[in-house]
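In keeping with the milestone schedule agreed at the kick-off meeting, the structural modelling team has produced records for the first pair of proteins. Each record is given below as a sequence line and a structure-token line. The laboratory manager (R.T.) confirmed that both were archived under the project's standard naming scheme.
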Amino acid sequence: MNNTLRAPTRGVIIGRFMPPHLGHRYLVGFAREFVEHLTVLVCTLHDEPIPGRLRYEWMQAMFCDVEIIHVTEEIPEANRHNPNSYRIWADFIRKIIPDPIDYVFASEQYGFKLASELAAEFVPVDPGRSNFPVSATEIRKNPFTNWAYLPNLVKPYFARRVACISQQIGVPGVDSHPARALAQHYHTVCVSDALERWMTLRDKPRTADDLRLVVKSQAAATAALLPLCNRVLFAEADCVTLQARLHLELDLAGHSHSEPSNLYVLHFDSTHSAEFRQYLDELTAILEEQSLPYIVTSEHDPHKDPQVVAAIEDLFGYKVE
């Protein structure tokens, strides 16, 4: 029999994906291999802790070959305590997907009842979560303990950023920046100083346009490294410190990751030049004016300073309620 006119199989997945994790990636990947047309409904409410639009954009970026639909309509009568909730959900899904649905994919029991109401087959994917023993709820409670289960795309949302400011060039016996020592200690990556990168291959920036490019370069490096960091991203500079150092007032609101760091570690040392010490004093005044948290150390290896370690570890207490 010729099957060339057979209708493509259709499947559906529904979820909040708050946030998406590797278990979700496996779920969608499984279903994508199973059917010819897959629709994923990202169901969000306006008062949820992680913005719905962001979760929808994450899912779009992760699964560009899957139909991702953002569902923002609230259906209070479809709550889990209503015995007719699955029928209500099925009717709602039919409005979004008018074509017959062949399969419902899920790793939880609700998939069976929803599939029955849709006259579809339920395909359980990973009920025991044997490959990825985590839930979005657990991640929201402690994203850092469950860091390995976060897709790189999602990590910047939870990652913490620490700028460690020091003068390492020209200091006898010093061959590394304290920020890099911190990054090595915490097994993560470090953003280099964009101004130093610039002057390695170019003359000192002279024009206002040059200076703007330097600051934007710092933001771009931060954005590129955040998905690759291990819980925390250290930096030799950030947009706040560069603008203070270069005496600039720039509007970088439209550039990603140009916002302040979560913590500033200021390294004071007797070998620093008078000019650099003056810059640190000016930066301290700016941080206090903007109520940005900072800590001062004279330890070139800040991870050996208990106050610095305590301040950094405190960043990992972050929770989304």
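The second protein of the pair:
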Amino acid sequence: MKHKCPICKTVTDSEVHKDFPFCSERCRGQDLGNWASEKYVVSEPIFGEEEPAEGERKTILLDLDKSDDHES
């Protein structure tokens, strides 16, 4: 699989580069540093930030019978 390195944009190949999707250990380390210094952030949490009470579980209900408007 070919992809561009997220740091330097060099073309990488999953069969050749052991640090895929990065082109090198240096770019992998720089990306980790960006996360550690909070240069990257997740925009919004998927769930509310409040913690459930002990023993309480969060449940998501999906309506699988509902038809999708994009299906033909």
